[in-house]
Amino acid sequence: MFSENEVVMFFIAIGVVIVCVRYYPKIKKTKDVKLLLWGFFVFFAACNFTIIEGFIFPRFFNLLEHLSYLISSICIAIWCYKAGLNSKSKI
């Protein structure tokens, strides 16, 4: 089965998806935002895989979940790196 924290995370992610879709016209003005959104939506897929693995094919969906977390982390890390390169202030 799945635990309560996985369901809570899923519903929080649904809320963020709704906000992203609602405000996409404003969000898309951000530089390289597609990478950031891909990272989040792959993270959202991982949240789905976490719930699904409690019902069917647990090993398969566990693998998909963790691969999704990896891909999501890489996308967000690349976006952060690019955002740092493009920032006007230097550290």
Q: Could you describe the 3D structure shown?
A:
- The protein has 91 residues and is mainly alpha-helical.
- The chain has one domain.
- Helix content is 79%, strand content 0%.
- The chain is built from four helices and no strands.
- The longest helix has 29 residues.
- The protein is globular and about 50 Å long.
Distance between the termini: 47 Å
Q: In which range does the helix fraction lie?
A: over 70%
Q: Which structural class do you get from the secondary structure elements?
A: mainly alpha
Count of distinct strands: 0
Can I get a quick summary?
The chain is about 80% helix and about 0% strand. It has about 90 residues and is mainly α.
Write the layout of secondary structure elements.
Blueprint: H1 4-22, H2 24-27, H3 33-52, H4 58-86
Helix pairs in contact: 1-3, 3-4
Please tag this protein with its features:
mainly alpha; single chain; 0% strand; 91 residues; 79% helix
